[in-house]
Design brief:
- Helices cover 22% and strands 43% of the residues.
- It is elongated and about 70 Å long.
- The chain contains two helices and eight strands.
- A hairpin with a 2-residue loop joins strand 2 and strand 3.
- It has two domains: 36 residues, no CATH class; 89 residues, Domain of unknown function DUF5300 (Immunoglobulin-like), CATH 2.60.40.
- With 137 residues, it is α+β, with helices and mostly antiparallel strands.
- The strands form two sheets. It has a four-stranded mixed β-sheet, with no helix packed on it. A four-stranded antiparallel β-sheet has the order 3-2-5-6, with no helix packed on it.
């Protein structure tokens, strides 16, 4: 009971006095970790959208040092994910639709730890269009 009361007293004093016993080093450590906690990741983000009237299956996004198996994406749906290329890379998108295999070839441009974004759209004609944006950070 005494330990609980002591802890409660400390909390009340911090609230009243508006201060705590954190050293400047602890605050700097928190500031150093904070960007990683709020999603300021350096790895490129891929936004993929299926604008075709058909469901695509066995969808795979790949490049230098990464392969993401997305699976099935229905008409009108999209996915957002991060990739970790090991060097400068294009983005290749492969999928199946109606018994036909589609391979985009290498499109777009990503680098490791840049924080860029790739937008890929599977069009109504099943052609893949990719646009990339520069680093956000």
């Amino acid at each position: 009971m005494i330990k609980y009361k002591t802890t409660l007293t400390k909390i009340v004093n911090v609230i009243r006095n508006g201060r705590d016993r954190w050293s400047p080093g602890r605050w700097l450590g928190l500031v150093g970790v904070l960007p990683g906690l709020v999603g300021c990741s350096g790895s490129p983000e891929v936004e993929l959208r299926n604008d075709s009237p058909q469901t695509v299956s066995n969808l795979v996004v790949s490049g230098t040092g990464f392969t993401e198996r997305i699976g099935t994406v229905r008409a009108g749906e999209g996915r957002r994910f991060r990739v970790r290329p090991t060097g400068e890379s294009g983005v290749r998108i492969e999928f199946e639709v109606g018994g036909r295999r589609v391979d985009s070839g290498s499109l777009g441009y990503v680098e490791p730890r840049v924080g860029s974004r790739i937008r890929a759209v599977i069009g109504t004609d099943l052609e893949v269009r990719v646009s990339d944006s520069p680093s956000r950070y």
